[in-house]
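User: structure tokens for this one?
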Amino acid sequence: MAKVKVNPMDKFKEKTSDVKPSAFVTESLIKSEIIILPELKDLIPALAEDESKQLEENLIKYGIKDPLSVWETDVITVLNGLEANSPSHELFANLDNDSTVYVLFDGHNRYGIAKEKNLDFKVNKMNFNGLSEVKDYMIDYQLGRRNLTPEQVSYLRGLKYNELKKAGKASGKSVKEKINVAEELAQEFDVTPRTIKRDGEFAEGMDKLTPEFKKDVLSGKSKLAKKDVQALKSATPDAPIDSMESVLKLLKEQEAEPEVEQDPQYLQKEDELVDSTFSNYVDSEDSISAIQTDPNQFDAFNLDEFKDDSQQSTLIENSESADIQEAEPVLTVEEIEGDLKQLFEQHLSKDVLIQIINKAGELLNLRD
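Assistant:
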């Protein structure tokens, strides 16, 4: 009987099957499988050219001291947090839903330099319940930095507001709870609820720009007015906008579009809905106590009767998201003064001085 030849590697694998991988092997595996999610990378304000160059020089000279942070999760958890039309779905196309993945959420700039210059780094694993929780963590971390421009601060506050609104909508929160999102963030950042809502519009508009143009606007390099970015909220460009000229052209075309005449019966129902839901609460000093006494009052008006056609469904959606606002200038004197105050607290570089001049011009125009 012929003797079966045994592969030495098979015997080695059999003997070592119970051996846990070392920390070094585990970290090396994680570093080789790090995933860059655009939805997270885009939350990080881009570095200016001189900042990027200085960071690269420091990392090459001193090494990467602080670990890069990754979110340890599974594929299905990430997919559940992505928009249905997000290109990021392709990143997980060849993976099983229960596969473990490591998504980078802190250290994007350092990671890019490390890959390019073949620099070593350590990793720090963290757990989150979902993508929205990761975003919230990242936004709070970025807002804690001292060298942000007013545009970056507004954008990050707006992202936080929009993410919390989206999370509230998904969980079926009431109108009252959605209104409180702006109020809670206003207290947290020492601004008005209206400022927070405008920040949300600014963030929506910013996300319709190309990455490079977005970087210029947030750094203060572009002179695109904040009110023009906010106006992009309702715009539907065919592709990401790459210049101030394209923004102004799109807004001009948007203004030129004829208004659609709405059905009088629909308008009457809209007035009834607004009056019934908000008149006794939003603008009165007794609103909080009234809600606490009878929290079901917001739901007293039967919304289901308005779900018969697409126009009426849109009305309900808009009222539930508490986006009904009074018409007034997009940017207030107080907000511009706040931006100027933040700028004066920074190092007065050439870019910062240009931003101060631009903001001062906006302030003069409003006061005139």
